[in-house]
Amino acid sequence: MFTLIRQCCDVPTGIERDDCKSDGMSQTAFVSMGSFLLSFSAGATAGISAIIIPQLLHEEGRHKYSTEMMSWVAAMSSLALLFGNMISGYLMERFGRRMSQIILSIFYISGWLIIGFSTNIYFMLVGRFITGFCQGWLGPLGPVFIGEISSPAYRGLFLAGLSLSIASGVFMSHLFGTFLHWSHASILCALFPLLGCVTLYFSPESPSWLASKNDIDKCKKSFYWYRGNSLVMQNELDKMLAEYEKKKEVKPKWETLKDNIQKPEFWKPLCIMIVFFIVTQLSGINVICAYTTDIMKVLIGNNKNTYTAMLATDILRVVALITACILLRRIGRRPLAIFSGVFTTLSLITLSIYLYLVEKRIIRHISPLISLGLMAIYIVVSNLGISPLPWNMVGEVFASETKGLGSGISVMMTSMAFFGTVKTAPAMFHSIGHHGTYLFYGLSTLCGTVFLYFFLPETRGKTLLQIAEHFRYGNKEKSKESNNHCV
């Protein structure tokens, strides 16, 4: 089997081969599957706490765990995100995008096995920290790799596939935990990074990274393998190599870094992506994943059918993200972001008002049809834009020479917001109630949507060089020269 995979993924030695004249979509899809499987594991990391916590609380013969300890079970992985973000940029530049993901998968497998075989909650927290560390490591790495190997025509589709994979991972972890003990569910989750590692092992490296290392021959072979050698693709390759040729002047690393961070094509997208990522977290997306069972108990009004409602919510999230993948090719990033932000705000505020009326007994009994319906609307509209788009765009808005630094800082900020929202959610539910918490998330999303309306650019159908030129020059005049080469 491995021999067949190797033959399928063998990088061509020249551009004359007929299979090198294709658009490369099938090859890119195959390699992207490796990153998608790692993103499956990232989703499972976010979702498994919704299974572990209720099972721990109901297991006989175990110690009683406090609310504070349970919040750490949910939040430990998000705390570790920050440390993974810190090393991600360095490792992807030092070892390459592909090799970094292979190393990452080994750590991911070990983390899941530690959770699965843990005999006490402290070993479990160690495993949660490792898987969260890997989740943070993958955060900037996956979008950068996918963004560099895919063509402009399919880049949005493949980048959106990362968010779809995360949602699918959440669903799979919940599905495993619905029918199995959390330890067995955790061991099954280790299969995702294992399969991802095998796929990436037989794949070529990113052509952009090879060009940055001045390995031009391998860069060309990798580029043709992923993209084909059509005239449009050849023009993009020539422009990419020309850009790297200009940067061959040797400078001290600190001086190069100083020059890069002062460029508008670095700090403009950095500011936009930081705000976008924080808005995503403050919309409550990951709070729903981490505390799904507890949230469903409130929305349903009893403890019955909470797991069924949880799985239905997960399926709805996956369907919404599949729809987002399709819409991104037809509509673009900016319209989806604005639409999603507006309707996410409305759904959260409406749900907040309804739960407030129920709590004040103005409405005597909660109606699961209404509460779950409003939550379903929130899940759909948030996953059409607010949830997937930051991960989609972080792999394409930064120039090649600042991609590792920019994506690393952006995802680091979302990791801090991730930890903050997940860790504080139980306290917020207790102090201001579910209605007050959803109102806070809704108003936060509203503020972020206003910012995105004024500053978020459209990147659909543009090459990475054209996107950099947009931020560099601040107008469309300069980039018009490049538009002639765009599909």
UniProtKB/TrEMBL annotation:
The keyword Glycoprotein applies. Keywords: Glycoprotein, Membrane, Transmembrane, Transmembrane helix. The keyword Transmembrane helix applies. InterPro entries: MFS_dom, MFS_sugar_transport-like, MFS_trans_sf, MFS_Trehalose_Transporter, Sugar/inositol_transpt, Sugar_transporter_CS. It is found in: Membrane. It comes from the Eukaryota. It holds the Pfam family Sugar_tr. GO terms for cellular component: membrane. The chain crosses the membrane at residues 35-57, 69-91, 103-123, 129-149, 156-176, 182-203, 270-293, 305-328, 335-357, 369-392, 404-426, 438-456. GO terms for molecular function: transmembrane transporter activity. It is a multi-pass membrane protein. Residues 27-460 form the Major facilitator superfamily (MFS) profile domain. This is Major facilitator superfamily (MFS) profile domain-containing protein. It comes from Pieris macdunnoughi.
